Amino acid sequence: MKAVIFDLDGVITDTAEYHFLAWRRLAEQLNIPFDRDFNESLKGISREESLEKMLNHGGAAEKYTKAEKQNLMLQKNRHYQKLIQNLTPANLLPGISRLLCELKSEKIKLALASSSRNAPAILERLGVIDDFQAIVDPAVLVKGKPDPEIFLTAAALLSVSPAECAAIEDAEAGIAAIKSAGMFAVGVGHERSMHAADLMVKDTRELTFDLLNEGWHAAGVEAEIDRGK
Ligand code: B16
Ligand code: MG
């Protein structure tokens, strides 16, 4: 394991909650039903796709022009940016600060693969931006998660091969992206949405270098058994 690639929302910090609040506010305005269960399906996917899903869910897919949709996304993002304004290092999820320190002292390279265009500002506020050697700019990607492009781009920016990377995600679309990138997938959250991960934890406080390293080696042994070695 030469590199660890992190998702942001739901892994490094709980901005997933702020996305939920901002989308719910927009949904209420548009009279679209919106609950935490539905919100799960928006995790990890882009702003544009999230809006489309939400409008479909409310039977309003054809109701808005392109320009109106741009405006709806702007409204959501403005509210979201207000909510994230007060983030501080205290908003790192439990165990993440320790994990970043452990990975740095093991000389593991770190990259960020977040679909959020607000990611650099968030890392800055959390005080960890300098820990990352690479941050993928989601604006340059052709396809979002579950496509592997974002994780493959992160590996390329770090000059490591995908097989040398582990990546941590809290969204089903993210785990699918990691697996199709040919990387070791670490899932944080409920078994229901994380079943495809190679290693699963319920909570970020369980994430340590030792756990990742052991999981990595165990998966390597299984892969060798699968190949009949
Ligand atoms: P923004 P991640 C994702 O971040 C969020 O999970 C998803 O809910 C959001 O729609 C997406 O970023 C885009 O975010 O509107 O800030 O550009 O989980 O990939 O770190
Ligand atoms: Mg996430």
TrEMBL record:
Similarity comment: Belongs to the HAD-like hydrolase superfamily. CbbY/CbbZ/Gph/YieH family.
Lineage, uppermost ranks: Bacteria, Bacillati, Bacillota, Bacilli, Bacillales
Protein name: Beta-phosphoglucomutase
Cross-referenced InterPro entries: B-phosphoglucomutase_hydrolase, Beta-PGM, HAD-like_sf, HAD-like_SPP, HAD-SF_hydro_IA, HAD_sf, PGP-like_dom2
Enzyme class: isomerase
Cofactor(s) the protein needs: Mg(2+)
Catalytic activity entry: beta-D-glucose 1-phosphate = beta-D-glucose 6-phosphate
GO cellular component: cytoplasm
